[in-house]
């Protein structure tokens, strides 16, 4: 009903009251100062501009590109069982309930009140002589009270919209929490795969070293080798066994980490098998439209809703300066004397109805302070949104640069492994034939071991960079489909009549 009241009625009412009470409180020049950065105007670097134009947007379950069913299972476990997600869901429910509380102020309010009591009437000058003099009677009443806020200036409706915007923000923050959780699970899972791959390398190195030791022992037994060569071949074995134990420790710790991310105990992680994802998996680049990229991030969407909510907060603060009109009334029964329930007869019915008008004249600066708080909150929300945009664009650019670098490093790392493997094979053959000493074999083996580890680390870093990039793009959660309308990011303009007493 309040939304059907014409602007002319509002203007006339406030003009009349402002002229009669020209000393009422004005805004005092208090207003927000922040402005939102347009996402399309932010300069993008070459990394973003040169990203593949024909690539696809991240899908909702983009990690399927890794081709590991166990990874799919544990991401599902994490989303369903993580305490982090439970807290995010609770915040959403809380925000929606708060929106319901705010919306209730726009509805008709009905309250019931009833009292039944015995009343002793004294005999004195105040009451005087009469029928009730020095007597005890029933003094009962029952009534229904009604009140309805006309909301001429949108205080209640803006408060409702503010609460609804905050609920939307909580939903977007929940998506952000989900995205971060998925990213953490994927990164931990990639590390688990890396530890297994490095364990394979160390165990292969152990096997190679045992073969070299056997060869050195055979050369000694054949009279062409030395005890020094055998000792040299034996020396690396304890260190290789230590590295094997270290990798097994990392595997166990990573399993515990995945269990914690999924909201499970360490025992649940023991059933984790070796990942089947290939560290050399081919992955597609996402689209390169900066504005659209930013709009898919849940944190950007959450910041937008916060700005909209703070704008409505300023509207609520503005409404406090204007005359407030409520409709109030009551209907009920009351009686003094008679039986205990005699007051419920039709003759005892009474009612009242009418407008209740209030206008702040002096409040010690409370309204202006509240407007200052709302304006400061809006400016902080705008600054937070602007910072989120800048950070988001930097994050996307960083991951694009890192991914491009990892692609190049992967090629170089593979070439280094091939060269190191060739050197090691030549050194072993030469040692077998007595053409070189064991030191060259050891050096070649150490180089091969190092290059193999670097190759696995580069491949894992490439997969992690892909996960970080998809996360920076919003992870396919579709947060950009739930954003405020463009006209909701700034407060509504106060009525022009307020300029008459805005001091």
TrEMBL record:
Entry keyword annotation includes Lipoprotein: yes
Protein name (record): Cation efflux system protein CusC
GO CC terms in record: cell outer membrane
UniProt-recorded Gene Ontology molecular function terms: efflux transmembrane transporter activity
InterPro entries hit by this protein: MdtP/NodT-like, OMP_efflux
Described purpose of this protein according to its UniProt entry: Could be involved in resistance to puromycin, acriflavine and tetraphenylarsonium chloride.
Keyword line: Cell outer membrane, Coiled coil, Lipoprotein, Membrane, Palmitate, Signal, Transmembrane, Transmembrane beta strand
Compartments, as annotated in UniProt: Cell outer membrane
Bilayer disposition of the protein: Lipid-anchor
Assigned protein family: Belongs to the outer membrane factor (OMF) (TC 1.B.17) family.
Domain of life: Bacteria
Record NCBIfam families: outer_NodT (TIGR01845)
Coiled-coil blocks: 199-264
Organism whose genome encodes this protein: Pseudomonas fluorescens
């Amino acid at each position: 009903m309040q939304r059907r009241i014409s602007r002319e009625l509002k203007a006339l009412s406030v003009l009349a009251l402002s002229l009669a009470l020209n000393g009422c409180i004005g805004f005092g020049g208090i207003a927000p100062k922040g402005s939102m950065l347009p996402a399309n105007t932010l300069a993008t670097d070459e990394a973003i501009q040169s990203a593949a134009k024909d690539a696809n947007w991240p899908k909702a379950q983009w990690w399927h590109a890794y081709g590991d069913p166990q990874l799919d299972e544990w991401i599902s476990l994490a989303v369903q069982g993580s305490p982090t997600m439970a807290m995010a869901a609770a915040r959403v429910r809380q925000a929606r309930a708060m929106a319901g509380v705010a919306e209730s102020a726009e509805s008709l309010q009905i309250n019931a009140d009833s009292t039944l009591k015995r009343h002793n009437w004294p005999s004195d000058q105040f009451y005087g002589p009469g029928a009730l003099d020095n007597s005890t009677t029933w003094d009962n009443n029952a009534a229904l009270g009604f009140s309805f806020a006309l909301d001429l200036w949108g205080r209640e409706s803006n408060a409702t919209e503010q609460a609804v915007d905050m609920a939307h923000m909580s939903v977007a923050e929940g998506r952000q929490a989900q995205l971060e959780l998925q990213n953490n699970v994927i990164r931990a899972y990639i590390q688990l795969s890396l530890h297994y791959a490095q364990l394979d390398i160390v165990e292969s190195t152990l096997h190679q070293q045992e073969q070299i030791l056997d060869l050195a022992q055979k050369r000694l037994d054949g009279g062409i080798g030395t005890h020094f060569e055998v000792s040299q071949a034996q020396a690396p074995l304890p260190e290789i066994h230590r590295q094997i134990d270290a990798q097994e420790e990392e595997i166990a710790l990573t399993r515990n980490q995945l269990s914690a991310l999924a909201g499970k105990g360490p025992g649940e992680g023991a059933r984790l098998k070796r990942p089947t994802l290939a560290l050399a998996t081919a992955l597609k680049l996402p689209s390169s439209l900066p504005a659209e990229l930013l709009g898919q991030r849940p944190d950007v969407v959450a910041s937008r809703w916060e700005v909209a909510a703070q704008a409505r907060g300023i509207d609520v603060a503005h409404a406090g300066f204007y005359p407030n009109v409520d409709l109030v009334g009551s209907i009920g029964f009351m009686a003094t004397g008679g039986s205990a329930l005699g007051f419920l007869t039709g003759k005892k019915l009474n009612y009242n109805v009418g407008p209740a008008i209030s206008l702040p004249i002096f409040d010690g600066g409370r309204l202006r302070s509240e407007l200052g708080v709302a304006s400061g909150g809006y400016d902080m929300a705008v600054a937070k949104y602007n910072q989120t945009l800048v950070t988001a664009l930097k994050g996307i650019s960083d991951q694009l640069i890192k991914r491009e670098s990892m692609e190049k490093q992967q090629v170089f790392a593979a070439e280094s492994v091939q060269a190191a493997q060739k050197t090691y094979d030549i050194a072993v053959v030469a040692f077998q034939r007595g053409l070189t000493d064991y030191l060259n074999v050891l050096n070649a083996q150490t180089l091969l071991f190092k290059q193999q580890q670097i190759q696995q680390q580069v491949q894992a870093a490439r997969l992690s960079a892909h996960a970080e990039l998809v996360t920076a793009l919003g992870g396919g959660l579709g947060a950009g489909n739930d954003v405020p309308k463009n006209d909701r990011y700034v407060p509504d303009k106060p009525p022009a009549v307020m300029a008459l007493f805005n001091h």
